[in-house]
Inverse folding.
């Protein structure tokens, strides 16, 4: 449970719609969609269960569970193996998992101000203690992050 949550509350938190408006893209697949809750992610298909075991196709949106670093590594490995999409993750630049995967991104957007994620009932929660980043895999994702610079600071790879 994060410091901004109260005991007994769900750990389900959803990406606010303004982020998708700023990105200005449609996704083929949301790979970590909640089984219940708002479906305003602009995607054609949604995986709610066993996503890591399934084949991902097209341009993907990924807001995976923010749990333990081993969980993040599984999601990020699959994401960068797929190589086509945008991932929303905690801004933990000194964490070993972040140091391992962030250099694989074609662009990184450091969100500012901190996101106030939404609850399943649509209410807006408090911001988590850490910031949030968007990682781009592929050219389309890189362009979307550059377009969404109103969300924060964007850094792109000179090599990609």
């Amino acid at each position: 449970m994060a410091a901004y949550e109260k005991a007994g509350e769900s750990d389900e938190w959803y990406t606010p719609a303004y982020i998708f408006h700023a990105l200005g893209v449609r996704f083929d697949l949301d790979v970590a969609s909640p089984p219940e809750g708002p479906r305003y992610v602009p995607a054609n298909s949604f995986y709610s269960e066993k996503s890591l075991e399934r084949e991902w196709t097209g341009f993907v949106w990924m807001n995976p569970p923010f749990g333990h670093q081993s969980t993040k590594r599984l999601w990020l490995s699959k994401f960068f193996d797929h190589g086509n999409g945008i991932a929303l993750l905690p801004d933990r630049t000194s964490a070993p998992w972040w140091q391992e995967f962030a250099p694989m991104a074609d662009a990184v957007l450091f969100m500012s101000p901190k996101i106030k994620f939404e609850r399943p009932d649509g209410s807006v929660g408090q911001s988590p203690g850490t910031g949030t980043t968007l990682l781009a895999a592929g050219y389309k994702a890189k362009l979307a992050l550059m377009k969404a610079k109103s969300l924060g600071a964007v850094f792109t790879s000179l090599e990609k």
Observations:
- The first strand starts at residue 27 and ends at 30.
